Amino acid sequence: MVKEGTFREDLFYRLNVIHLILPPLRDRREDISLLANHFLQKFSSENQRDIIDIDPMAMSLLTAWSWPGNIRELSNVIERAVVMNSGPIIFSEDLPPQIRQPVCNAGEAKTAPVGERNLKEEIKRVEKRIIMEVLEQQEGNRTRTALMLGISRRALMYKLQEYGIDPADV
Questions:
Q1: Cβ-count burial of 13 within 10 angstroms (0-12 exposed, 13-18 middle, 19+ buried)?
Q2: In what residue span(s) does the Sigma-54 factor interaction domain sit (predicted)?
Q3: What is the rounded CA–CA span in Å between residue 94 and residue 11?
Q4: CA 109 – CA 9 distance, rounded (Å)
Q5: Pair 30, 144: CB distance under 8 Å
Q6: CB 53 within 8 A of CB 91
Q7: Percent of the chain beyond pLDDT 70?
Q8: Of 50, 78, 125, 140, which residue has the fewest beta carbons closer than 10 angstroms?
Q9: Which of helix, strand or coil describes residue 54?
């Protein structure tokens, strides 16, 4: 831009003292929970709402989303959820459809006919997939995975054993 004459050279050198590299939000998934909770507090206060928490499933969806609009998109999603929500907790249903879609369509699971479905088996299948996805995002770190899922580390260890998931394989 300096060569093209569209940016002042002296200003360029003043600003060029320090180089800041800010990776996109999709590369900083461990920050999403902290940022989402910050925005939750901010917008709850600004809108005089008593929303105190984000459901673990909703947080998993937020963590899994690619955030093409980066932090501004996350801020807008949380603000919308706060304004539109009537309860004290933001659930996955309070999030925009494009954010809920990955869990619904992940793996392109086929829906069995009504008579062949077993709710408990379906819940376990979805729970196992979510645990595996978050575990992979957290590079096998069980403590961070439990935190992202909103469960204790002990509960996560039980689920890993129950589903036969080895974090070393992720």
A1: exposed
A2: 1-83
A3: 45
A4: 56
A5: yes
A6: no
A7: 91
A8: 50
A9: strand
CA distance linking residue 49 with residue 87, whole number of Å: 9
Three-class secondary structure of residue 109 per DSSP: coil
Tokens describing residue 72:
């501004």
- The pTM assigned to this predicted structure is 0.54
**Residue 139: both structure tokens together:** 């590079």
The whole-angstrom separation of Cα 49 and Cα 113 is 42
Average pLDDT, the chain: 86
Query: Which residue is listed with tokens 């590079």?
Result: 139
Q: Quick one: pLDDT at residue 106?
A: 43
Instruction: Give the residue among 61, 25, 26 at the shortest CA–CA distance from 149.
Output: 61
For the chain, the first-to-last Cα distance in angstroms comes to: 45
Say which residue the tokens 């539109």 belong to.
84
In the chain, the domains with their CATH numbers are 25-96 (1.10.8.60), 109-170 (1.10.10.60)
d(CA 63, CA 114): 31
- Contacts of residue 83, defined as CB under 8 A and 6 or more positions apart, other chains included, come to 43, 47, 49
